[in-house]
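Why do we bother with holo predictions? Because pocket geometry can differ from the apo form. Keep that in mind while you read this record for pyridoxal-5'-phosphate.
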Amino acid sequence: MSAERVQDKMNQHTRLDGSPIPFIDVAGQRRRLGSAIDDAVARVLTHCQFIQGPEVRALEADLAAFCGAKHVIGCSSGTDALLLVLMAWQVGPGDAVICPAFTFCATAEVVALLGATPVMADVEADTFNLDPASFERAIATAKQRGLKPKAVIPVDLFGLPADYDAIAAIAAAHGIKVLDDAAQAFGATYRGRKLGTLSDATATSFFPAKPLGCYGDGGAVFTDDDALAARVKSLRVHGENAGDKYDALHIGITGRLDSIQAAVLIEKLKIFPDEIVARQAVAARYAEGLAGVATTPRTGNESTSVWAQYTIRLEPGRRDALGAALKAQGIPTAIYYAKPLHRQAAYRAYPVAEGGMPVSDRLAEEVISLPMHAYLEPPVQDRIIEAVRRALAG
Ligand SMILES: Cc1ncc(COP(=O)(O)O)c(C=O)c1O
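The structure, written out:
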C-alpha cells in the first residue's frame, strides 16, 4: 500500500459522513509519532538485548523524572505490578486486602492469587472511586472475620485519582499499607502531586488502551521505599539474589518488561504531557456539550484526570437504547463495568463491607463510556455529542 493510501486509511475516521468512529484512536497517535517508534524498535532489533535491555533502564529513569518517584520498576503487566508489590509485602493466607467493588477484576485477583482475602468496599458515585467510609467499614468486616487487614488497593478509576489524603489517614490509623492501582490513571495529579508518589507503592499498566500504552503488555511499580524496590526487582526475576538469577532468594515470577515495549514507551512518554492536555480538552467539551442530558463525571480542582474513559451516567434502563442508537450511527460505546466484583462468579464468596455495595450496584446499571482519546477532533466529537443529545431527547 502506498504511503498516501496508508495515511488516507488512518484518516478515515475524521470524515463526518457517518463513517465509524474509533473508541480509542491508536492510529492517530502513530500518525503523530511518525517513524520515531519504528526507529526505536529497529534499534532493539539491532542490539538484540530483548530482555532487560538498555531501554528498560532508560524508561525507568524517564518515568521517575516524569512523576517524581524515587524508584520505578518496569514489569510485564499492570496485574504483575500489583502482584509483585503484594508479594514483596508478603501478603498471604489470613491477610485481608481492601479493594473497591467497582473496578476491573485484576485489582482483587492478585490478592486472591496469593491466598489472601479481598474484602470489597463501596465507591463514591461522583468519582467512581473508593469511599473512605466504606473502606473503614471493610477493615472492621475483615477483623470480625478473623482476618488481618494488611493493605488497601484504591483504584484511580477512569483516570481520576482516589482521595489519597482520606485513605492514607485511615490506613495509617490501622497500620495498613496503601497500594495505588493507577492502571488507568498514570499521569494524573492529586493536590498537585503526580500519581506514583502518593502511596507506599503504585502500580500502573501500559496495556495499549491505557492513556500511556505500549504495543503489547507492560506495567510498572513506583515507590520511594528502597527496601520495597529492591525486593520487587528481585521478585520480577524469579526472586534472584542481587542479579544472579541462578541463586534464588525468594519465590518470584517472570515479571519483566521487555526492551521493545520500553523502546515504544520512551517515545510515547515524550508526547504524553501534550496528550494529557488534549484528553482534558476533549473531556471539557463533553462536559459542556452533554450538560443537562446526562450526569457527566465530576471535575474537581483537587485532582486532574487523564481520562482513560469518559463515562456518563443515565437513569437506569436508558443506556441500552443510547448504545444502540449510537452504534447505528457508527459511534461505539462501552460499559465499564456492568457487574461489580461482588456480583462476579469468581469473587462472589469474598466478604463485602458492612452496609453492602449499593453505589457500585447502582453505577453498574447507570454507566456508559463514550469514545475518548487525545486525537478526537472537535467536528467528530460534535457528531458524538449531537447523537447522544438526540438519542436522549427521543
Ligand atoms: C483498574 C485496573 N487494574 C489493573 C489492570 C491490569 O492491567 P494489565 O492489563 O496491564 O495487567 C487494569 C487493566 O485493565 C485495570 O483497569
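The two ends are 44 Å apart (CA to CA).
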